[in-house]
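Collaboration report, partner site 2.

Our partner group contributed sequences for two proteins of shared interest, and the home lab folded both. The records are reproduced in the order in which they were received, starting with the first partner submission.
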Amino acid sequence: MRKFVRHPSDFPADVRVLNEHQDSHSVQMKNISKGGMSCEVSVPIFAGSQVEICVPSVSKECFGCGEVAWCRPGRGHFQLGVRFGDAETAYRARMVEQICQIEAYRRECESREGRFLAPDQAAEEWIELYAEDFDNQFTADDNGLRF
């Protein structure tokens, strides 16, 4: 059983391997939780590697560090699981989670209701509707979010 709820995400991110080469890789986040994140990357990054995680669409600064927990081959890419390293990273991940949820809400309004919301409008609505109960309102299932 999972310790943390996974929140679906579809944001581009960068993962920088903290080694002598400081290799940086563009990744596509798939889900994120307080404990870690999964993403797709074009090259394997070995389990145990220490990495720094950035989400350029959210902030120019990296939001934290983690350790690669697993790396599995996929079709034309590798699936990567990153475990967050400390409470500060987990806190920042929570902020990224909220941004992901707001974007999912914006897309949902567009597809279900035909409403096209600007990001700031979506944020205002989402905060009013869901922020207070953030941890309990959203759960992940195989198809994404359940509102």
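Second partner submission, folded after the first:
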Amino acid sequence: MLTERMREFVLDLELVVAAESRPGARAAEVAEALRGLLGSGDVLRPEHMEPAPDGYRQHVVHVDPLSRFSVVSLVWLPGQQTPVHDHVCWCVVGVLRGREEEICYELDEAGVPHQRSTSHNAPGEVCWLVPPKGDVHRVRNDGDSLAVSIHVYGADIGKLGTSINRVYPEPAGEHAHTGFPLAGD
């Protein structure tokens, strides 16, 4: 079951994906819709904001019946992070609560990731990525409280289980990840 505001957001997404087929343009339009959602009150049901002690938790909130997109909440306790990874599809991320650090990487000729940039995203901030370029990153909760972000993926995450395409070796000098997502609802 969705909140009323999430139901409206899903209807907006259905219009976007029906009207725009180019992945980059689609992600940009989804980002605008997500910005509007983040400041609108009750967005997620309480069960979609439950963390897990062993790793960040992924809750599938909605899957489009035509498999064009999925809405997922990721819930992070302080210090939890992803491995360095890339994606199977375009992705739009908005921070609902807490703070997330995103480290972006470039791959050298041998496929080894090297840090390119770091950003700190607070509530209301939205970013997106479109494979195959510029989508290698690591995300973590670098704050001292619970972080919740809403992700819109251009694939059926209910079937795939994850948006991660490949996991890369840990770059020299970085700490290993604290766990893969734990399945939610």
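Feedback sent to the partner group on the second submission included the following. The chain has one domain: 4-183. The CA atoms of residues 171 and 185 lie 32 Å apart.
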